[in-house]
Design brief:
Layout lengths: L8 E4 L5 E2 L6 E7 L5 H12 L9 E4 L2 E6 L4 H40 L4
Antiparallel strand pairs: 1-3, 2-3, 3-5, 4-5
Length: 118
Amino acid sequence: MTDFQDIRIVELDDAASGPSESGPLMNMVLKLSADVPSDWREKFTETWGQGALAMRRAALVQGDTLTSTCMAYELQDQIDQLNEVISATNDIYRGILAEATARQDAELGDLKANLRYE
């Protein structure tokens, strides 16, 4: 298994950002530090959608981008909230990888213990 590097927001892609189809809201496209694995994306979406104190705007992760649909003046607050969820998602994903590695190691250990060479 490869080492997982934490996902983080690195910049606003202003060329890809623009008006959304939701009235005055904007699709603010944020570049991420790497393409996200599908398990990471699923955990992010699940965590973002869980009970927030305030209503959260839509956020969609695809490849190495995160699109936040919000008012332009809300973007910094969105980034602050997104960073918290991204950090939690990184921790969750690291746990998923550790469990998969432990399971694989156990399976290989069992296999090795039961192999006969003669």
